[in-house]
Amino acid sequence: MHQQRRKRLGSSIAVFVVVPLLLLQGGLVNFQGAIAVVTHELVRMSEMRTQLAEAKLSALKHYLDLPR
Hey, which of 23, 35, 44, 46 would disulfide with 29, CB 3.0 to 4.6 Å? Predict the structure, then answer.
């Protein structure tokens, strides 16, 4: 399941990077606007990964603090 999520994330990144670049080649999109959209999506995905990592770390700390 984790592997599928990683594959989907990779596909999402490819779509958000490749599609605007193809549109730029055709002159259909403003260059600065396309860069802003791609940058925004990359930052958003990075923030999501950071939140996931923080949640995993918090869960691990909680698990390690439990009495056995």
Answer: 23
Tokens of residue 55, six digits: 């949640």
Tell me how long the chain is.
68
Q: Residue 19 is part of which domain span?
A: 2-65
Number of domains present in the structure of the chain: 1
Its pTM stands at 0.51
State how far the Cα of 37 lies from the Cα of 33, in Å rounded to an integer. Answer: 6
pLDDT tens-digit map of 1-41: 555 555 566 677 777 777 767 776 766 656 777 788 889 99
Q: Is residue 20 packed enough to be buried (19+ CB in 10 Å), middle (13-18) or exposed (0-12)? A: buried
